[in-house]
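Reading is simple: each integer encodes one residue's backbone shape. The lines below illustrate:
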Amino acid sequence: MSDASSVRVPLVGAPPWLSAGVAGTTALSSAAFVLLFAAEHATPWLGLFPGLTVGVFAGSALSAWARRRGGAAVVEATPGRLDLVDADHRRALIDLGARWAAVLLVGRDRRMLVLSQHADPVVLLEAPGAFRDGPPAPEGPWAARARHVDLDGVPLGASSAHVFALAAGATLDPLLNHLTRTLEPDAPFILQNLSGGERLRVDTDGVTLGDRAPLRGAIHAAPYVIRADGGSLAALGLASAEDEGALLLVACDEVAPAPGSVATESSAEAMLPAASFALLKAVADAKPGPQGAAYR
């Protein structure tokens, strides 16, 4: 839903009527079984037990269906802001009037839009199967900043922090069209201030972390595990073919080390939150690909 100056994209969530709907479903199921038992000349109140059981399962199915269709929460883009809006409050996500970063990850049947500015990246994720024949070819400025990746391998979902799943049937297209108004041509893919005071920047030129020498060109991310003080810490070793021998090691204490990780006793040069850790690996390993090509 949109007008000339704003775009509203519905998100997965509980609609206002869900609690009443679940309660009503349970009550109707219980009443039906009570009447059925009475018709069979059995003790009517015994029907409450199967009635409540069926009601719980029916209510769960109704809840799952309703949440996929979307609730009261939406992401709203205006000329100057990107906000999360629900029935109770409005929360700013991105200041579109200042410099911001964006990358579009394209999978087999859906897309993931990653927006960042200062804090943790904001991730907008289409529902699985959003496109029967694959996502459409990125257009305009999004063609140059689209990366093709297996989104099933990116461990981010609606329950992850700063990740917002679009309701079933909703797509990123209206939002992408709206954001082209303020997206700078040379904007980075990811831009984030880390807890240590350093800034992480990822763009077509490579990766820059604080005042360290940047890694230029295409970046590859290899899984590492840092072993120290009897513990293990998941890490990524970022390397570039243009900087032979250079390795940037970043870590995350919120995820488990990946199987087959290379063990090291080196110290991490930065700690990343889980979402940024997953996105950095996805962007580094993604394929630019021909325009419109989906991940294969």
Notes: Residues 252 and 272 are 5 Å apart (CA to CA). The radius of gyration is 24 Å. The first helix runs from residue 18 to 39.
